[in-house]
Structure formats: C-alpha cells, structure tokens
Design brief:
heterodimer; A: mainly alpha; two-stranded antiparallel sheet; 11 helices; globular; B: 340 residues; mainly alpha; two-stranded antiparallel ribbon; 2 strands
Amino acid sequence: MDSTVISDLLVGGILRGGMYVLMAMGLSLVFGVMRIPNFAHGEFYMLGAYFSYFACTLGGFPPAIAIVLAGIGGFVCGALMEKVTFYPLRKRSRGDWIMNSFLVTAGLSFILQNLAQALVGTDFKGVPQYWGGSINFAGLSVSTDRIVGFLIAMASVAIFWLFLKKTRTGNAIRAVSEHETGAMLMGIELNKIHTLTFALSSMLAAIAGAALLSIIPAYPTMGLQPLYKSWFVVILVGLGNIQATIIGGFLVGVIEAVSSFSLGAMWQDVVSLSIIILVLLVKPTGLFGKKMKV
Amino acid sequence: MISEKSLETGFVKNLKHNLGNFGLSPVAIGLFVLLGFAPYLIGDEYILRLLVISLLFGTLAMGFDLSAGYIDVANWGYAGLMGLGAYTSALLLTNLGISPWIGTLAGAFMAAIFGLLIGVLTLKMDGMFAAILAWFIGLILMALTTSLTGLTRGALGLNVDLYFNTGWSKPYFYVIFVICIVTYIVLRRVTNSNLGLAFSALGQDAEAARTCGVDPMKYKVINFTISCFVAGLCGGFYAHFMGILTPDIMSTKHTVEVLVIAYIGGRRSIWGPLLAAFLVVPVFEYLNFLMEFKYVIYGLLLILVMIFYPGGIAHFYNYIVGIFNEKKRKLTGPESNPFA
C-alpha cells in the first residue's frame, strides 16, 4: 500500500467520520439525558435532507441558509414530537421506561418514513451540487461539498460542545444526565430540559442530513444507514458518553474506509460488527464506557 | 348419589388441572378445535389463506412475547432471524436436495444458534443491547443475502419448492396449525413452570431474582434461544408456503409488524398475541388499499398502545375477570371467601 492510498483512505475515513460524530452525539445525548434508545434518529436526518432540498429548490435559498433552515426545522419537529409522545409517556409510565420509549421511537420512525414515502414519493430528491468544484488537499482532489460538509459538521459539534460546557442551560442538561433527581432538587425544570435535549439532538441529525444532500440525495428510507452507523459508534465507545463519540465517530469512519477498500463495500458492516462483538466480549461497557450496572 | 357427583367433579377437576399444566383451558381447546375444522367450514380460498397468515403471525408474535414479555428484550432482529430460517431451509432444499421438513427444523436450529450467540454476548447487560445486536445481525444478514447473488439470487428472489405439490392453502393450514399449537403448548408450559417463574422474576426485578438464587444469565439465554427458534421455524414455513424469498423478508418493517401484534395482544400472556393476530392481520389486509398510510397506522397504533395501554388485550381480559371475581365474592358473601 503506497502513501497516496493511505492518505486517501485516511481523508475519506475522516470525512465520513465527521458525519458519524454529528449523528452519534445526538443519539448519545438523548440516551444520556432521557434514557431513550432513539430509533427515530435517522428519520430526523431524512427530514433535514428533505427540508434542505425544498429550501433549495422551492425556496431558492442559497445552500448555507438552506442548511440552517433544515437545522431549525429539525429542532421544531424534535420538540413537537417530544411534547406529543415522550411527555405523556413519561407521565403515565410505570417502569419499563427504556423498552417502552424504544418502541415509541420505533413507531415514530415508522410513521415518518411512510409519511415521507406517501407525501413525497420514493424517488431520489437531490441537488447536483451545493458549491461545486474541488479542492486539492495533500495531493488528493476532494470535492468542495465534502470538505464544506465536514467543516459544517465540525463547527456544529464545536458550537454544541461549547453550549454544553459554557452556558447555564448546557450545564443543566449535563446535570440531568448525571443525576436526574439531584438536578430536579436543584430547581432544574426536567420537562423543559427533556424537550430541549430531544430537539437539539434532532437538530444535529437534521444538519447532518442537510449538509450531505449534494452527495446523498433524499429518499424516505435514507435514515437507516446513518442510524445504525451511529449506534455502532455509540455502542463502541459506551452509551451516554458524549465526549467519546467524537473519537468513536472518526474511528468507525476510518475502519470502514479501510475495510471497504481492502475487502469490498459489502463486508464493511461485517467488519464493524465483528469489532462490536469483540468489544462486547472484552469490555461490555464500551471502549470508554463509564461504569454502569452490568 | 352424592359420592358419584363428587367423583365426577373430582375427575373434571383433575382433567382441568392436567390440561392446565399444558396451558390449555377449556375455552382454548374449544377455540383450537373450532379452528381445526375451519378449512371444512370455510370454502373461500382467500379467507383460508388469510387464516394461514394469521396463524403464522400469531406464532411469530407468541415467540416474540416470550422474550419481550418475560425478560424485557424486544428482539429487534426478529425478522432477520426469521429470514435466516427461511433461507437456510430454502438453500438446503435447492442446493443439497434436503427435504423441506428437515430443512425447516434446520432453519429453526440455525436461528436458535444465532439467538444463543447474541444472548451469551449481550444478556448480561440491559435488554436493549440484545435488541440492538440482534438488529445489527439482522441488517447484515439482509445486506449479505442481497449481495451474495450467486447463492441467493439477491433481490430477484429465490424460488423455493413448496411442502406439497399443490398451491391450495388447506394442507398448509394444517402444517402451521400444528406448529402453532405445539408452540403454544410449549411456551405456555415453559412459562408456567419454574423456568417461567424465573423468567418473570427476572423481567420484574433482576436484582431481587438474583438474590433468591435465580441465575439471570442462564434463564435469559434459554428464553432468548427458544424465542429465536420459533422465529426460524416460522421462517422455514414461510419459505415453503410462499414459494419465493426476497431479502425484504428480513427488513425491520416485518419485526415491527410482529411487534405491534404482540403488544396489542399483551405482554406476558402468550395467548394474547395469538388472539391479536386474528384481529390485526385481517384488518390490515383489508387496509391494503391505503398503501403507505397502512404503515403510518401501524406506527400510530404502536405509540398509542405504548402510551395509553401497555398491557394490551391480555391485561384488559385480566381486568374484566377481576371485576367478575369481585362481584361473585360479594354475591356469595364473605363466609365463602377464605381471605375475608
């Protein structure tokens, strides 16, 4: 393997990984704060792609604004769905919370996917390019859209990270994820935090979908792949550990790039699965997992 | 005269008790017998086929309920394991010429082995891990069957020989009928035994169960393996009943279908999901003209059941029986009630 191939794989893997980070972070956040294994996360990715598509084609907005609009759309949809489903579920739930909420997200995913199929159709809805052109980078030519998409992902992750660390609301979210009752006793309104958390996580997924629109066109079942990729990441590094998803996302991206290059695209999931199984065998809480009830 | 009467009630009681050991109440037997004669009572091929599909989904949902209801694992790869059973049986038949009857069993064992492996890996953690690992495995099996076109013909579909030389539903009805009854009896027996007690203890409070000497790992793995076996068995039947297999059979969509039936039927009852299949499958067959909106309704139903009535039909039935018992006790007076 010569050096151009290696750098090609590395760059490809990191570009891919950036998106996994963005997706997995929201997934991990929702599990950490609300204890919901979100199965509908990929559907917000799909919504983001559709929002951006319609903003670009019907609204005629420039790409940057389309992506922002998609993010806002994801935020609003996420907040709405949290209020309509998880809020009443939390009110009525007696035990079995993880399982019940898991099934509710499955229902949500089913509804969103099939509504999209019924209302928009199954054909690919994409834009040929956002910015177009390509950039020479370390002797490789990479399309501008991929680079900009990656930069958007990284910027979102950084802003989100600062929000969690520096602002009062962000600290409240982290407090709830650490100890719910304790946070409530300190005067944090749990309902607000839960809604905000779910909305933010949906927003991150929607941004990911929107930023990649020129590379992956929008279609109703497009959410499945990013969904299970982000579950790979989250299980690999440990559930609810938000920092570690950053490392995990890039790790999975590079592993996939390498395995699909050396074994063929068909086997990349098999390789990832084998790694997950190994991790579960050796350290069931994940590579960077916190100690939890095993 | 009196002694004769008491002898009779004694015999009836004994019989009832023995049947109860197999999870069969007189009502259940009556319904099963009635169902057994259905092919002779119903001349319409379309309705009979619908009955076969209801039985298939009922059996699948019972297997699903075993792990979802008793150890709190919603097996997210259920359709994947069903597809594994189906493809195993079909490939054994087309490539090696092995009889579909043996193939169906082989497929079931194949699914059970996968279930065992998933269980051993993940069941020491929260049930969610098992659900998600099973899901990954289902997705990968689906991707592999799609891309290994040399073996499975991929999305084009694999033609499979049927069990019988006829396409009429009647003989297939009896095959799935027997599978369904055997599954029902075995599952009821398992869940009513000490094993079942351990299962529900684990589902309710794993810590407390462990303190009482229940080895959670062992029971959970046994439970999960049996559940996967049922999935594989039904998959084998599906293959030799439908005659064509596509990788779509493994998609998560079908897991959700089974899951909706199981939850409408009610967790932790086994009979609830079976009954629910006879309500849900025909209704959704009728709703086919709605296309995608049918699945939207599936999703809505799942959310509504989860939020407002997580107990399902079985819970509703227990509630009604509870009211009746209360009335009876009030009518007969306190002296007949040993606990009064």
